[in-house]
Amino acid sequence: MELKEVKSAIEAHLYKHILPYWEKYARDPVNKGFYGKIDSNNKQYGGESRSIVMTARFLWSFSAAARISKNSAYLEMADYAYDVICNQFWDKENEGVYWSVTFDGKPCVTKKQVYGEAFCCYGLSEYAAAVSELRNDSEASKNALSKAVKLFELMDRFALDKELGGYVEARAVNWEITDDWILSPVDMNCPKSMNTNLHVMEAWTTLLRQLKIFCPNDEITALVRDSLKNLIVVTVERIFQKDNHLALFFDMEWNRLDFEISYGHDIEASWLLWEALEVLGDKKLSKKYRQLVIDVAHTALIEGFDQKNGCMENKLDGEKRDRTRVWWNQAESLVGFFNAYELTGSAVFLTACHKEWSWIIEHQMDKTGGDWWNEIDAEGNPIMSADKGGNWKTSYHNGRACMELISRLK
User: Fold this and answer.
1) What stretch of H or E contains 400?
2) What is the number of helices (H) and of strands (E) in the chain?
3) What is the mean pLDDT of residues 298-311?
């Protein structure tokens, strides 16, 4: 299939299969907000708590969809998510956002989990650009961007390790020190992690991209640029390892606490690092880290990608290999391999993209129920116990992958 045909196929998949699914199933019409759990049969569970991560990801993905399609209809879903954030998640006393709220919109887990704060900043930044471009609504854009900037200021003031760099996992509701670091039941309760710092980098990248447009010479733009540059360096020096994999969990001094390789995070980090470098615009730093980006993608391809079936496996924990095909690993592989192809022109990366896309359409995609299956086992069967949607699975990973390729294939 030619790249032009691939672009058309991806557009059709995004606009007819992914986004309509979430428009149909994600919103709770009884209690405003998004369902915290949608099972593999698309049954919605109204009593589940709702996370800021889920809500911010809907904000980002439908704002981004409006921008790339030039279709303001997608802003209706983004407006809904923005309203939920402002009225349910925003901590009016301490500022910032709660980690989660109850099904009826009351504060639930109130700590300031930096991963969640970062995703909220990410979503707000994209929404600010979308309402400016598609509605020419400067006031709404300014309000959203000011909230994104506020989150940046709070995180840089309270969560940044000013001595050793990077951001800690969490603060208490009032931004004081806490030892309740843990992000999720599958994560380690430790003060620093790859995942949080990777997505803070992603948030600063998107925030800086918008600030360079709206207020290029402002002091805050310079501060965000400096913070992004510092985080890029810390990410490369502390999180990326000599074997081209990422360490996942750390103590305060950046000593590694895990022995796991996460193939999806490796390939995701490769292209997010390059995106951050491009937005930063530091040519010296880009030249310095360019080969690392390629090497990380190549190692993920050699070690984590199932060449026969054309999909990314999950992880290697010691000698135990998890061959589950998780939805977000496939989405990130699609972008990461194409990014490496753009940097190198190497056919091996483009071939991997074609294989990955074929896998997604043939296996990961739920052809009758909509969107993608959360997990596929090593034999190619959907794992029906894995939720189709909710606090961790939204329109973000696969929607973003489609939008990235649509943009790059132009």
Assistant:
1) helix 396-408
2) 13, 15
3) 98
